[in-house]
Amino acid sequence: MEGIAFNFALSSLKVISFVLDVITFPIYFILDNPLEAKRKAKEVRATIIDRGPNYITFRGKQQPTEFHIELLENGIDTMSKMLDYCSKKRKNNKCLGTREVLAEEDELQPNGKVYKKFVLGDYKWQSYEEVNTLATHFGRGLRELGNEPGKNVVIFSETRAEWMIAAHGLFKQSIPLVTIYATLGDEAIAHGINETEVSTVITSFELLPKFKQILSLTPQVKTIIYIEDQLKKLDDTNGFKNGVTIIKYKDVLEKGRNSNIGEVAPTKDDVAIIMYTSGSTGIPKGVMLQHKNLIATFKAFCDLTRMQDGDIMMGYLPLAHVFELLVESVCMCMGVPVGYSGPLTLIDSASKIKKGSKGDATVLRPTFMTAVPERIRIMQIDYENSLVFFY
């Protein structure tokens, strides 16, 4: 008897579901227009404009946006011109944001273990004018340390505001930026540094211990500039190789502030970045990208992205990859502030967030962020805490 009742109920639900499908299908068809979506999926989006024995060049068919045309009319063909133009246009607007770390405290876990957790404040913002000025000072400071235009410098650091400022400081002095993932192994990192014949490396306080081990593999490195931690200080430099100068990021800014060295503006054909791959298929490879390559992609992103007042971006993926660097640059240029985060503080349940405190996403409330499949998968697993991205 129970089996008959169950089958009847199941059949009834199937009938109701079918009726609802029939009723709602016309509404779905009108609103979603699947035929139009199918047509757009088959649409030709790019045409071949040049072809050679070893290359092929495509150009998108979409019409340039007003902002794209504005960049062309103002001759923006290098990354240094881009920042100068945007800082003049948006001067006092919020540009780059970093969350304040107030303290690091012990937190007892249910299993009896004690972990260090952050007590975090709000985001502190730097204006466009401040960012451009800091980039100018940093570039001059590097020159004061003996770095000449055309001589490569490595940034080996996590994604953060200082990374972006340092990069633009290099651009302003025509110093090619070598980007290396902070997650690579020692030999892969040393390979990138040695291959590009780098003598100056920009890193962070957190990565200094790792870099100490790499110095024995990089004989040409003579200067390490480290971005300071908000709470901890570097007590001593014991264990670092003799002959290597270790200097604070802020001290480089101070040198640049007091310097009379002028800007050495790059041309569009100058190398802007030598970006090293993740090395997933072997030894990391350096990809040379000129300013004109970056600006061309920059303009394409502008054409494909719709932004509006009130938007805000979360800087999260590695800036060592040109994708994150250019997306953040597009946001900056279009007036969208960029607030920085990392996996340890991203959401309320992140490993360094103290119980009862808020993760970066909850505080920042971003409307833009870049993502990769693995990040999306994590957000699906931690669905409840990831809802903050979809308010």
Write up what this structure looks like:
The chain is α/β, with parallel strands linked by helices. The chain is built from 14 helices and 14 strands. The strands form 3 sheets. A 7-stranded mixed sheet has the order 9-8-7-5-6-10-11. A 5-stranded mixed sheet has the order 4-3-13-12-14. It has a two-stranded antiparallel ribbon with strand order 1-2. The chain is globular.
Main beta sheet: 7 strands, mixed
- Please state the CA-atom Rg, rounded to the nearest Å: 25 Å
Number of discrete helical segments: 14
Strand content: 15-25%
What spatial form do the alpha-carbon principal axes imply? globular
Note poorly predicted spans. Answer: none
Helix proportion: 40-55%
Structural class: alpha/beta
Secondary-structure element order, as H and E?
HHEEHHEEHEHEHEHEEHEEHEHEHEHH
Distance between the termini: 48 Å
How many β-strand runs?
Answer: 14
Mean residue pLDDT: 89
Q: Can you list the strand order of the major beta sheet? A: 9-8-7-5-6-10-11
Keywords: ATP-binding, Fatty acid metabolism, Ligase, Lipid metabolism, Nucleotide-binding
EC number: 6.2.1.3
Domain AMP-dependent synthetase/ligase: 118-377
GO cellular component, one term: lipid droplet
